[in-house]
Amino acid sequence: MAPLEKWIxxxxxxxxxxxxxxxxxxxxxxxxxxxxxxxxxxxxDANWTGFTLNWYQKLLTGLTESTADxxxxxxxxxxxxxxxxxxxSTLVATFLGTLMAxxxxxxxxxxxxxxxxxxxxxxxxxxxxxxxxxxxxxxxVFRILxxxxxIRLTLGLPSVMxxxxxxxxxFITITVRARLSDLDPALEEAxxxxxxxxxxxxxxxxxxxxFPAILSGALLAFTLSLDDFVVTFFTxxxxxxxxxxxxxxxxxxxxxxxxxxxSTLMLLVSLFFVISALKLQNQVNINx
Length: 288
What we know:
The protein is mostly helical and about 290 residues long.
């Protein structure tokens, strides 16, 4: 055995472990520091003066410091907007994404290959490109509608909902289609042979089997919508500020641990939905 091959065989596992440790440290150490400093007693993140829960208390009871220059009302209003947008876009994307997955997996029709390619675009292209494209689209559509009807439309919650549903459909379609591809067609054929029509077969056989994948995709879409900043930044309007945009505005005014506290809570919510989606996906794989 050559010296190089012998060295590789000897130190392969330690080197791979070190590499993985460095990668995960690079990815998650900033997040860990953010969480730690959300309990900092000092108003300035650079100086640690002691442990406190005051910043979380202020989020729940109200902000009284004039230096913070924010209010509880605006904070909870932005959170409400985020939840409304996330829930609405997730419902629309789940419905359309599931139908698209069924169409692409069960049928072959002209243009299906093109549709599959277009489906991947919201995932592949940069978010800023998607955001600018949607902004141009809404501007053009609003101008045409104003010329035809005289009604002037502006960006707001509906435009953000449509934008979030646009990129969420792709994730849900891929998730549901992966489950459909593993589904044994004999199960549906058996239901048809026993006298069930296609509608009953779908609701009694197909839907229960793909429901974990649908729910998994919906949770993923909800998390992506709740955390999205770039697309929302380009498609939002007056009165439609979401929580990520609100946090960005706070950074412009004053960088305090309350920003870390809000970010930590958003991180926990996102982790909850991501872990739930992964568990559902694993359950589907076990059932297979």
